[in-house]
Design goal:
Number of strands: 9
Number of helices: 2
Order of helices and strands: HEEEEEEHEEE
Distance between the termini: 47 Å
Largest sheet: 9 strands, antiparallel
Strand order of the largest sheet: 1-7-8-9-2-3-4-5-6
Oligomer: single chain
């Protein structure tokens, strides 16, 4: 009984220490997003599969608490603004909760935006590693840096 208690205690202490190191950026940690609150803040796009991000530097994703149970996911995707209201217990992808304004832009900007919004709506995973958020579906990946 004692050995089991101390083994469990040791694992819990290590988990707390590693979480602290991850938050401080002192360790490399992958976190599969299960709670949207972990995404709180502003994220700027760093790269996106098949696109030149230098032409779209203002693309951002922001998650903010509306209240303790709801979060707003908002952002700018190059031409239009997008938004979703997400319950704290919701899982990703955003699916039909994701909506956007409907302005037209240059064809290459619209192709980028359509691809990004499709990824955000249908992604397989949202993973945070240090201050890098990776949103992916198959081979398509977008990386965002926490601002």
């Amino acid at each position: 009984m004692k050995k089991s208690f101390f083994n469990s205690l040791g694992k819990n202490i290590m988990a707390v220490l590693m979480t602290g190191f991850c938050i401080l950026g002192l360790a490399s940690c992958k976190v599969k997003i299960s709670k949207i609150s972990k995404l709180n803040g502003m994220w700027q796009i760093k790269d996106f599969s098949g696109f030149n991000i230098d032409e779209m530097p203002e693309v951002v994703l922001e998650v903010s608490a509306k209240d303790k149970n709801e979060f707003l996911v908002t952002g700018f995707s190059g031409v239009n603004h997008f938004f979703a209201v997400v319950n704290a217990n919701d899982k990703f992808p955003l699916g039909e909760r994701l909506a956007s304004t409907k302005m037209m832009g240059a064809p290459e900007d619209m192709r980028f935006e359509d691809s990004l919004l499709t990824l955000l709506a249908s992604s397989d995973s949202w993973v945070i590693k240090r201050n890098l958020l990776t949103v992916s579906k198959g081979d398509m990946k977008a990386h965002f840096i926490r601002k």
